[in-house]
Amino acid sequence: MAEGPGPGRSCPVQYRYGAAALAAAAAPEVETLWVAGGLYGNRFALAGLLELFDAEPEPKQLVFNGDFHWFDADPALFDSIERAVHLHAATRGNVETELADPDATAGCGCGYPEWVGDAEVARSNRIIERLRAAARAHPAALGALGRLPMFRVATVAGERIALVHGDADSLAGWGFSQERLATSGGRAAARDSLARAAVRVFASSHTCLPVLQSLGTAGAIVNNGAAGMPNFENTRFGVATRISVRPRRGALYAARPGRLHVEAHAIHYDHAAWIEQFLGLWPPGSDAYASYYSRIALGPRYAMGLASRSDRPIAVKQAA
């Protein structure tokens, strides 16, 4: 009998919710919504994000859509990130889910697809084990993480917005990755997801690289990549999603599905301080250093021009 996917590649049944659950969810209304997935324990990026958000007029909401923990494998740093996030709205990502209720078959819970190498998967499984050791110092926080929802829905300008970590059906789904959305099949599936969930926009993260995929009258998929790491080659800033009734200056790229302004904004932070903090916890030879240091220092091999896409074929290489 063939074995199923191993830890780090499997997607546990309890991660699944289905687009129909989104269609039935209540959707409180705001004028401006900021969505930041993949903070990864970067407290300097958190400060930059809060500065952007604080400048917005009410009514507004900031949502951390998962993986706000990852590199913060120190009890004090973990606690500071946890406290700051819970002053706002949040959904849990695979990291928070596996901290709160570890599943031996899930590993890091990333649900990695076939194009991610086995060595990277194994390193991620070891990173989550070290993060768990730091998180155990705060048992109340683990309970709070477990109570976070897997998705939220909001209304902006009369349009419903789904806030997920992965994709329309699963907390660790890769359907909204830049790789999948580069294919005609991936875009067709995304249009179907918008219809099944009865939303105009999906705002996601999880897959580490940003993309804003316009899908004509169906709506759009926006993935902020990572709020706490560089997302483009030779850059030193994170990315967050802004969805509003009005535009804001300084967007990296934007789309206009229906009455919405959907924008990607840079989160600038103290790069030198972040490098120092990262290396203090994850020095050369550590798993996080091997998987992430090059990206943190130099950015991934992914051009910003590839992130903003209309509904037509595009040739996209898998980023390193």
Sequence of strands across the biggest β-sheet: 3-2-1-9-11-10
- Residues in β-strands, percent: 15-25%
CATH superfamily caption: Metallo-dependent phosphatases
Low-pLDDT runs of 5+ residues are 313-320
Q: What's the level 1 CATH class?
A: Alpha Beta
Q: What's the gyration radius in Å?
A: 18 Å
Number of strands: 12
Describe what this molecule looks like in 3D.
The structure is a single chain. The chain is of the alpha/beta class and 320 residues long. It has one domain: 4-Layer Sandwich (Purple Acid Phosphatase, chain A, domain 2). The chain is built from ten helices and twelve strands. It has helices at residues 19-23, 43-54, 75-85, 94-100, 118-135, 139-147, 178-181, 184-197, 271-281, 287-298, and strands spanning 32-35, 60-65, 89-91, 151-156, 159-164, 201-204, 211-214, 220-223, 237-244, 253-255, 261-268, 308-309. A hairpin with a 5-residue loop joins strand 7 (211-214) and strand 8 (220-223). The radius of gyration is 18 Å and the shape is globular. The two termini are 34 Å apart. Residues 313-320 have low confidence and may be disordered.
